[in-house]
Amino acid sequence: MNSHRITGIIRHYTRKARDQIYNAGLIIFKEAGIVEHLDDISACVDELIKNAVKANYKHLLIIQALQRQFQLQYKDKSQSQIHEYIKDILKDKIQFDTLAGIVLKKENITKKVRDVLNQEGVFLSIKNRAYKENRPLSKEESKTINTLQLFLDLQDTMKKKDIQILLKIDLRDDYIYIEITNTAPILSHDLQRIYDKRDEYRKYKNEDRENEFFINNIDTSDSGFGLGYAKIDSYLYNLSIEPDKAVTVISINNTTAMLSIPVEALKKL
Asked: Alpha-carbon distance 82 to 174, whole Å?
């Protein structure tokens, strides 16, 4: 089987971006001869990208909260000195996790993540409507977008800090490898939550109580970290793919989620 790779950067996860990702996947899945399974795998990729978007917002909101705290704490320090100090903290995962845990409680970052996701939802529905109708944004729509201050500010900061979501789809050695990288690390707490939710889902699945798991996890007040991965595991089980072997999450300076799709196994379904 030929090696084939597609890469891209996701700036806004709009309907247009989703169509582009789907069409990129279509090329590779056709070449692999498993195009009938593209929709299920696309649903997994969708969850991974949404998780990456959420994690990047959370990371930035924590950084901003730390900047405010340090500015109050060290009044003699300039803004650039504070930036450098935070850069050093980011190199030490344990220290960053500890400080992040404090500001998360102090500033209710979880609520702010929900707020920005709500504003992003408004932005996306406007963009998607214009895309569907194949037209530019109206003055009214542009005006509405300009009111989404928290979302716009974070987008601007992301650009300045070069925080992105990278997508890579690779066909080689009878596997399709799909990598989604957000160029900011996620907190150890959130990574652990992903592992815990996946374990919890597996337990329910093994007891034939899968529906109960999703009913019990309707509340996403903790920004839903981990729930998306349980949905992915559900899709993979339905394709007779062992999720533990197929999904890997690595977080050091950035966070990469990798899906390894066995081509020959899917051809036998």
From this structure: 49
